[in-house]
């Protein structure tokens, strides 16, 4: 990107520069979007895998995540907090329509749960791309996304033609603004990950799915168990060997240094709600 064409997707901007990204999950609810709109995160992943899929609520949440004062002060169309969406369907469901609706609403990327095979990964990338003719230098994975850019272009602050020019996937298109993130959540996915990364261009991020991975290993939510440590190390090794950033979904104050030392660059850490007045009031009034 040139100085005249700055990045709109700040997640891609930071990953391309070798920097870290700090993100969180949130339900697709306007009140959550408002809370995060001025928070010091780089990205917000609207969660629709384990929360209800509601396209209208997602549309509204994307709008409420924008903060006009921030945009004016930054003198840039880029949102301060880049919105991504984790869709509901597992990779083997080939849910292209979820990706299509997410991108048509204006999201800057799609997080695909439970990607375990090369075919599933290829479908994930293809679903986020517009079609082109064979012979195009970036033809593969052949795009499957349907054409309805108006809402997304408006959300990005662009004309339709400007949106088309920016809406391919990165890093397949170095100027693309769409991020495809794959969640690796089982041993089959780990086994196939080197082939996935070697054979499917356009994967911008891999996220370790600790919860489901630990379930399969028989150590549910024991994220520090040796079996989990070995599985996560295999994901990190495969990605680092190919220059692909890796995300960690459960970053806390207790583990963040280790997460950074391990080489994760997309760190998902939830905000912590506190009640200092309530806590102090209780301590003062509950005395015997």
Beta strands, count:
9
Helix content: 40-55%
- The sequence of SSEs as H and E is HEHEHHEHEHHHEEHEHHEHEH
Shape: globular
Task: Give me the number of helical elements.
Answer: 13
Helix/strand/pairing category: alpha/beta
Distance between the termini: 65 Å
Low-confidence stretches: none
| Main sheet characteristics | 8 strands, parallel, barrel
**What fraction strand?**
5-15%
Q: Based on the structure, what is the oligomeric state of the protein chains?
A: single chain
Give an account of the 3D structure:
It is a single chain. 41% of the residues lie in helices and 14% in strands. Helix 2 runs parallel beside helix 3, helix 6 (118-126) packs across helix 9 and helix 9 (187-199) runs parallel beside helix 11 (226-240). The chain is α/β, with parallel strands linked by helices and 288 residues long. The longest helix is centred in the C-terminal third of the chain and has 15 residues, at 226-240. The chain is built from 13 helices and nine strands. Strands 1-2-3-4-6-7-8-9 form an eight-stranded parallel beta barrel, surrounded by seven helices.
Distinctive features:
alpha/beta; 9 strands; globular; 8-stranded parallel barrel; 288 residues; 13 helices
Summarize the structure.
The protein is an alpha/beta fold.
Give the helices and strands, then pairings.
Layout: H1 10-16, E1 21-27, H2 30-37, E2 43-47, H3 55-65, H4 68-74, E3 82-86, H5 96-105, E4 109-112, H6 118-126, H7 150-156, H8 160-166, E5 169-170, E6 178-184, H9 187-199, E7 205-208, H10 210-216, H11 226-240, E8 245-248, H12 256-262, E9 266-268, H13 276-285
């Amino acid at each position: 990107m040139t100085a005249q064409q700055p990045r709109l997707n700040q997640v891609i901007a930071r990953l391309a520069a070798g920097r870290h990204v700090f993100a969180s999950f949130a339900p697709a609810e306007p009140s959550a979007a408002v809370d995060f709109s001025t928070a010091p995160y780089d990205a917000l992943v609207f969660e629709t895998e384990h929360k209800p899929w509601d396209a209208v609520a997602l549309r509204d949440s994307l709008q409420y995540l924008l903060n006009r004062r921030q945009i004016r002060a930054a003198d840039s169309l880029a949102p301060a907090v880049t919105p991504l969406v984790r869709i509901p369907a597992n990779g083997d469901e080939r849910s292209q329509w979820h990706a299509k609706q997410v991108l048509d609403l204006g999201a800057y990327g799609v997080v695909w749960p439970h990607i375990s095979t090369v075919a599933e990964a290829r479908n994930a990338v293809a679903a986020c791309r517009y079609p082109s003719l064979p012979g195009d230098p970036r033809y593969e994975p052949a795009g499957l996304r349907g054409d309805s850019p108006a809402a997304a272009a408006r959300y990005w602050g662009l004309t339709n033609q400007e949106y088309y020019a920016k809406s391919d996937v990165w890093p397949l298109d170095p100027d693309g603004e769409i991020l495809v993130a794959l969640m690796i959540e089982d041993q089959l996915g780990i086994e196939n990950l080197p082939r996935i990364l070697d054979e499917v261009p356009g994967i911008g991020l891999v996220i370790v799915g600790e919860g489901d991975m630990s379930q399969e290993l028989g150590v549910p939510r024991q994220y520090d168990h040796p079996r989990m440590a070995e599985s996560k190390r295999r994901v990190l090794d495969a990605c680092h060997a190919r220059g692909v950033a890796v995300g960690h979904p459960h970053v806390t104050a207790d583990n963040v240094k280790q997460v950074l030392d391990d080489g994760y660059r997309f760190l998902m850490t939830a905000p912590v709600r506190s009640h200092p007045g309530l806590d102090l009031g209780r301590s003062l009034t509950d005395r015997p």
